[in-house]
Fold this protein.
Amino acid sequence: MDTDADRVLSDLRDLAALTSNERGAQRVAFTPAWTRAREWLRARLAQLPVEVVEDGARNLWVRLAGERDPPVAVGSHLDSVPDGGWLDGALGVVAGLELLRAAGPAPSRSLLLVDWADEEGRFGPSLVGSTAAFGTVDLEALRAGSAGVVLDLDAVATAHLRRPDMAAYLELHIEQGPVLEAAGVPVAAVRGTYGVRRGRLCFRGRAAHAGATPLDARHDPVAAAARFVLGAREAARRVGGLVTVGVLEALPPTPTAVAATCRLTFDARHAELDPLERLRAELLRAARDAADAERVGLASETLWRIDPIAFDATLVGHVEQAAAAVGARHPALLSGPLHDAAQPAQAGIPAAMVFVRSRDGISHSAEEDSDPEDVRAGVRVLAAAVARAMDG
């Protein structure tokens, strides 16, 4: 498949100029900048002999008819986090656009491009579009997070009814971490993703005056939250996983009072299921211990969960062979970040990913970047792996 990687880079720069500001990419799902990105993509698709369909979750499905079905699918997401980077997600979609251009009007097998909606999880749950497409979306969590302002949840619930068949699924993405840079390798195959347990804690104390209440008389939910944050890091070290407290909010927000409540979110990740469950249990135990130590109440809720996912060994092998052909030899990686490829893999569709080296391992930031030659290598590897899958 004769792709033009320089055109991919040019398209990515055009998209960034259209949807970014001085703080970075602003393609947050369902916002005006994301809508502009979608319009930009549709304008380019209009030049190709493809069928474009948008489902109830706002996933965009683009089909180029070939001699055989079901199609091989490629995809990723145009949406970004606030103040995000120019490559995260967009690289896979724009590379997929280039594959449609390169495949010609009648490829040996149909080719499918999907731009998944809200991969980043604007409302709490991640992978909103792809979980909707595979019938695993948490509608109640979406209802709580979005308050029905942006999403038509009745329509989201129908997305799986319009999902086309796929023979295989491949996704190109930046690594978002430092492993490939440390190894001096531009691209690598990905063999699976970590599992995630995401939750919210609410420590409920007693509001009090900052100047009139002795320390030993306080029921301080912020102190309990601080104990939890430190305990969570120690739990992650013991289990060998990752924990992040991404949101921490004291209410009422005033510097002259002990807060009445303190809410926080935690995100726990591990490559294996049993240690992941053990880590979650240890986090809840750490929260109870923190609440007891500060004499405050505790409420907890689950925000989102996904088990560790293994990608298809044959398809991963195709990616490894394609990477070796461009001089990139590295053991297939496990991805700590989540990706939409987990959903087709979980549904039994052969899936794999290609990672491109991230400069300084930075992502979800305006400083996110990859060397142009690494991006070119990633596009070539994706094209070669897709060609193998289409022939198979």
Notes: DSSP finds twelve helices and 17 strands in the chain. The radius of gyration is 22 Å.
